[in-house]
Amino acid sequence: MSDGAEIVIDRDLTKKTLLLTSSEMYDDLITAYRTGGYKPNEIRSMLLDLRAIPHEVVPTTLNIAIIAMDHYIEYSGSRRLGLFMWRQHQR
Known about the structure:
By secondary structure, the protein is α+β, with helices and mostly antiparallel strands. It has four helices and three strands, in the order H-E-H-H-E-H-E. It has one domain.
């Protein structure tokens, strides 16, 4: 996995973090893989693999975009809004 992804997913699986994503992420993934020459059945398989990562799909509202920018500022992120965002669970 990429830098830190395993830690974030582990935190999600132990309910310490809730992963949020925009539905646009799915379109972005499909477009990227199609551009990369992957076959539709390969892309479908990758999408099915995403089911193993618990996450909640949220609309990309103005407030969500602002929260994403706050994460980018805090964590020096450079990813698109459609990629996973997360928030800490309240204790």
